[in-house]
Amino acid sequence: MSSVSPAARRLGVAIGVAALGAFTLVGLPTTTQAAAHANAVPGLGQHIAVPAYIPLTDGVSWNQLSSGSAQLGLVIANVASGPGGAADPGWQTVINATRAGGATVLGYVDTGYFGFAGAQTALGRTDATSWLVQAEQDVNRWYAYYGASMGGIFFDDAENVCGPTATGQQYVTLYRELSDYVHTFHPGSVTVLNPGVAVPECYQDAADVLVTYEGADSGYLSPTGDQVPQQWQLDADPDKFWNLIYDVPQDDIAAVLGQSKQDNAGYVYVTPRTLDSNPWLAAPAADYFSAELAATEVTDHQAPPIPPKPYTTAVSPTEIRLGWTSAGAGHAVGYTIYANGTRIGTADNFTPADTEFDVTGLQPDTQYVFTIRSRDEAGAASVSGPAFTVTTEPSFGAPPSAPRPLRASDLSSASVTLTWSGSMDHDESVAYYDVYENGDRELTVDPGTTAVTVGGLAPGQTYTFQVGARDTTGTLSPRSNLLTVTTQN
Q: Which SS3 state, helix, strand or coil, does residue 488 take?
């Protein structure tokens, strides 16, 4: 077995075709860090997380993924390098069945390294805004097509450095925006980001879960360079990390999963399939998959301590900073935070200091009830700690002015470019512009963006568009003029 090039270690594939893309490498620690961590978490409980780019005709593989195993955690659905152009009854059936079996189903969305490596969107654009717009539209389609069976989004083709310069944050800020977009408009959803290699600590809050290895067995057991986990990853909550290893003989399952525990990966997937045959196009044979599931299970009869009641150190109309004392939390490695009973994120156990978690995307002047559960290395969870109730501050001040005039240009059979003038806000800064298509919010962009190209339209159809502004307190502007366009045939 031989290792593959970094460009090949990506899930960015059309069904049956591997997509190769360039990305930037970053210097990483040596293997001595991983060796020092060996046996530090021998009882680490894990879940299998599967990139299921499996044809609907492979009923055997899909039945395995809907079998109801307690060890099956995440399953990526990928219709056509994304959600496709319409809801598909066949995909609805397998997504529903997989969700009913207990797994969280993630929709595949390509981010194309935000165009920084030259990748083009479906409309042939390479700029970061166009990639952000396409990704948000793909997110919307997954939830529109498959509804409550969708449990989150998998963002592929991610950069693995913070920004284009040593001190820059441009790249990771874009991924945070995408993750926040999903959390805000689809509460309870899990977000996953796939750099495919180890990443610096700036990525800790870029998504709920990070894929920090995607490659062959040989590179995993003998890692070098960017395959070696960084120290912050070894010390963090294991549920933050997902490792994907292909070309793994059945006799190597125990060794590979043992390494994944040492690498602090709470989610893992191994397959005997190779890159030549596309490792994600079928589930392993039943006996192989059973061995994989069994190897991740840890029996733990002692639940971690119940976390104390949280408190708040900052409240605004749209954000709350929660804190709680983690001292004395025993063998807890992380926490799961809930708002009104819905999971909203996880946090590491930074014993002995207090732990903090920023809750964003809230509604002004709204009451929320927060609870926290702790988790240990074996995956056991405590019961919920005491509830903490808090009301966000009301929005205040005059609303931003309406973005206008809204204009259309470059109208084609499948897309239109929208432009508008920036809003004025005399009390707070404009935080976002929301683009509405046929009355429904379709996109959210930052305040520096006043032009977007909306794709995925149907030929010869009439659409209406408006744009509205939101400031940092959640105050909404009036919407722009209503713009009506009819796409070309």
A: coil
Please name the residue that has the structure tokens 């002004």: 364
Give the H or E element holding residue 95.
helix 89-100
Distance CA 104, CA 123 (A): 31
- Give the span between the Cα atoms of 417 and 137, in whole angstroms: 15
For residues 330 and 102, what is the distance between their CA atoms, to the nearest angstrom? Answer: 29
Q: Is the Cβ–Cβ distance between 362 and 187 less than 8 Å?
A: no
The pLDDT of residue 25: 30
pLDDT band of 353, cuts 50, 70, 90: low
Query: Whole-angstrom Cα distance, residue 310 to residue 354?
Result: 10
Using omega within 30 degrees of 0 as the cis cutoff, is the peptide bond preceding 89 cis? no
pLDDT, tens only, 424-435: 887 778 999 999
Q: What is the DSSP string of 200-259?
A: -GGGGGS-SEEEEEEEEHHHHHS--GGGSPPHHHHHS-GGGEEEEEES--GGGHHHHHHH
Is the sign of the CA dihedral 149, 152, 158, 160 positive or negative? negative
Does pLDDT of 204 surpass 60? Answer: yes
Structure-token match 């077995």, residue found:
1
Question: Residue 348 corresponds to which amino acid?
Answer: D
- In this prediction the pTM is 0.89
